[in-house]
Every structure is written in structure tokens, then in C-alpha cells.
Amino acid sequence: MFNNIGVSGLILILAIALIVFGPSKLPQLGRAFGDTLREFRNSTRNIMDEGEREHLIENEGKKPF
């Protein structure tokens, strides 16, 4: 989805964000976005680990093909 943005696209997005939110809110928005992204990655990692753990428990003692 975001593979073709490029540097000019990022600059345009940052300029629009600066105009809309102002320079005082931008650091707060960036911090909130980073925290949200970090929490999402941790949750996704935990879900994947639980699924892998359940898969190992279900297939314990079974011979592979």
C-alpha cells in the first residue's frame, strides 16, 4: 500500500500535517503514533507466539510426514 510513496510523498504528508495540526501538536502526534505502532507489533507478536505454542502442543508426539 505504501510502497510507492517516496520521499516527495512523505514531505507532502508532513507538510499537510504541519498545516493541519500545527508545530506544537506534531511531536505529541508522532509520539502517540509510535506508541500505537509499538503496541500493535507487540500484540501481533504475542498472538503469533501463542498460535505457534498451541500448534506445537497439538502436534506433540506426532510423526511428521
Automatic annotation (TrEMBL):
It comes from the Bacteria. Its main location: membrane. It comes from Paenibacillus violae. It is found in: Cell membrane. InterPro entries: TatA/B/E (IPR003369), TatA/E (IPR006312). This is Twin-arginine translocase TatA/TatE family subunit. It is a single-pass membrane protein. NCBIfam families: PRK14861.1, tatAE. Keywords: Cell membrane, Membrane, Protein transport, Translocation, Transmembrane, Transmembrane helix, Transport. The keyword Transport applies. It holds the Pfam family TatA_B_E.
